[in-house]
């Protein structure tokens, strides 16, 4: 039901007319912002050769001005293939939205099922949460969320030795990297978990890292060999992205008057990733302190905190990233107030940014003192930022919702003389 509502919300922007490129009309751009029904899925139908059914990466590249051509899209290779599959049998952006929704919906259903098996009724936060209506088909994020949740499910519900479970989970995270990159950050806490659960098992930790990296390499190598220029162009596109309105991050809203300065953009290319890595290190360190007290490394909580650091400090933020965080509201015992507040701030930012863009494009007053759009946007941007800081701490301070389940796999036998942890 929620996925159907999500599709209906985005389908408001399609048709009723179509031009020679299959683009909806009339006034597609104005309607998509004004009516808050914009989606990247529909928007990218034109401009990436998706409408021409060009197989991605193999024949394309990137121009000096940053424009992609020849079927290259700005996402990792498995997402590019999903986009190509969604466009195979359609010739309008409306058809592309529908076929993409049908392609991605099973991943959303799988996430609901896995979360239900992990945390029972709390999975309704995913299944009935407002973010699924707002973002299920905003971009191609349901498959990558599925890869991350599947890794947690394998680790905590598959009855197999730790070595096998952790290897399969690492492979799933490697597939996630080939979809949207972010699941790769969970490999480090997973490796630390295996290291500590196995009694300082260096080999197990290295096996996790190797399985994830090897999977990512195996998926990417065929594309790199078939068309290195096109394959590399997707990474180059992301590395070139500057702090501007399209990134919608705290760096833009906090320093938007400086964004035209090349020196500022160069500095952000260092400051933003540096702070993201620092937040990762802090989360892993706090997780280690908890391990020393409890005897178990909290890899799920640490992963959740690392994601908060990324969402707050990365120079690019897209509205649908809320889907990345939503499963952790299910899996970690954070207070309901945090969740309700985040949903409210997220809704304010989602509606505010598109209404604000509409006013800007129409040349109408769009300042904070001019109306609700800018006010909602600022509430959303800074409210979300404050909540991510608080959630970073809250995630690290609490337990998962799967700790007390009776069907949690028993720990693997440890060598004699080592500590068996819970």
Structure description:
- With 422 residues, the protein is mostly helical.
- It is 64% helix and 2% strand.
- It has 18 helices and 4 strands.
- The strands form 2 sheets. It has a two-stranded antiparallel ribbon. Strands 3-4 form a two-stranded antiparallel ribbon.
- A hairpin with a 5-residue loop joins strand 3 and strand 4.
- Helix 1 packs antiparallel against helix 5, helix 4 crosses helix 5 and helix 10 packs antiparallel against helix 15.
- The radius of gyration is 22 Å and the shape is globular.
- The chain starts with a helix and ends in a 25-residue tail after the last helix.
- The C terminus is likely disordered.
Total DSSP helices: 18
What does the largest sheet look like?
A: 2 strands, antiparallel
Q: Roughly how many Å is the radius of gyration?
A: 22 Å
List low-confidence stretches: 404-408, 410-422
Give the mean pLDDT: 92
Beta-strand residue fraction: under 5%
For the structure shown, list the relevant keywords.
2% strand, 422 residues, two-stranded antiparallel sheet, 4 strands, mainly alpha, 64% helix, two-stranded antiparallel ribbon, 18 helices
Topology:
Blueprint: H1 2-11, E1 17-18, E2 24-25, H2 28-34, H3 40-43, E3 61-62, E4 68-69, H4 77-87, H5 93-119, H6 124-127, H7 130-135, H8 142-157, H9 162-180, H10 187-197, H11 202-226, H12 228-240, H13 250-255, H14 262-294, H15 299-313, H16 322-331, H17 336-362, H18 372-397
Helix pairs in contact: 1-5, 2-17, 4-5, 4-9, 5-8, 8-9, 9-10, 9-11, 10-11, 10-14, 10-15, 11-12, 14-15, 15-16, 15-18, 17-18
